[in-house]
Amino acid sequence: MQKYLLISNAYPTAEKLYANAFLHRRVKAYAERGLDITVVVITTRVLKDKYYDGVRIKYMDTHEIASHLHTHEYNTVMFHFVNPKMFYGIKTMPQDKRPRIVVWLHGFEAEAWHRRYYNFLGDIKQLDAQLERRDTVYQPQKVFLQDIMTSDEYDISFIYVSEAFKSLYVDPYTEIVPRRYAIIPNIVDERLFPYRKKTAADVKKICSIRPYVSKNYANDITAAVIEQLSRKKYFKELTFNLYGDGPLFDEVTAPLKRFNNVHLHKGFVAQSDISEIHKNHGVFLCPSRHDSQGVSIGEAMASGLVPVSNAIGGIPEFVPEGTGYLAERDHVDEMVQYFDALYQHPKTFLKMSKKAADFIRKKAGVKAVIDKEIEVITGD
C-alpha cells in the first residue's frame, strides 16, 4: 500500500483547535479516498503522540524527521509552511531514495515581510525586530525556496492557493517560477457550511468573524463602515454581530459600543459554531488588506451570505462579479455604497446569495480541491 507523509509546523489538537485547521480537513478527506497519511509536526520539544478526531499526530525535531525518513518508505512527502529545518531530512537522503515531494505555499513563508508593513508601523520595536530578521530569517528562507525550486535533485511540485498569490506575492519574492506547479485553493467544506436559503430580510443582518491580531485583517475598516452606515436613515433596521479576539479587539471596537444594534462577541469562535452564525445572517462584512485566498469569505459564501470585501490579493478569484462586492483597498466609502446597493435591492441580494454558494462549491468545494490535490500527490 502506498504511504504518504505530511510535515507541518502545526496541527489541530483538543487544546489548539485553530492550529492549521485546514490541514485536518485535507487529511480527513485524503483518508476517505484511501490514502494512508502519517502526520508529523516539527518541534524542538519532547512531546508524546497525540490524537485528534481519529488522526495520530507525531512530534519530531529536525534530526528525528531525518531518521524517520531513512527508516520508513513513503511515496510522497508533503510540506505545509516549508522551511529549511523541515526539509533537512530530505536533503540527507541519497538522491535515488528521495520520495516525490509536494510543497504548499500559503503565505508568510513565501513572500517578502514588507508586504505586511502596516502591521509594524504603530510599534517601532516590532519594526526593528522585522528588520533584524530580514537577514537572519527572511533572506535564508528566500535562498532555500530558490534552491528547491531550481534544483534537479528533487521530484518536486508546488501548490499555490491562488493565481494572484503566485503572481503578485511569491514570484516577485523568489524571482523564480518552478517547473512543476498547480493552482489549487484551500478547501471550503460545504459539509461544514451548508447552503441555507436567505430571505429578503436577511440583508439587514450583517456579521464579521475575524481575528483581531494584526492590521491586515482590516477590522478598523469594518468599524469605519459601521460608523458611516450609522448616518443612514435605515441604520436602526440593521443588526451587526462582530466575532473575534486578539490584542486589537478592544481598541477597534470601542467606538461601536454606543450603538445598540452592534453586538460585540469577544472570543474565538469554534469551527462548529460558525455555520450557525452564518445561518442567522445575510451579509458577511470582511474587509482585508492582505489575503492569498480569503477562506472565511468562501465559507460565508457557501452558507449563502453575500460578502462585502476588498479587491486585493487572491480575493477577486473567489468573489467574481455577481457573487459579492469588492471595494478598492481601504476604501470605506465604496464599501458603504456596496452595502447600500444590497439594502436597496433585496432581489439582487437573493440572487447573489445563491450564485455565491454555487460558485464557491465548484471553485473550492471538497471534491474540486481533493481531486486535484490527489492527482498531484500520487502523480497520476
TrEMBL record:
Its EC number is 2.4.-.-. Pfam families: Glyco_trans_1_4. It is an enzyme of class 2 (transferase). Keywords: Glycosyltransferase, Transferase. CDD domains: GT4_PimA-like (cd03801). Signal peptide: none annotated. One of its GO terms (molecular function) is glycosyltransferase activity. This is Glycosyltransferase family 4 protein.
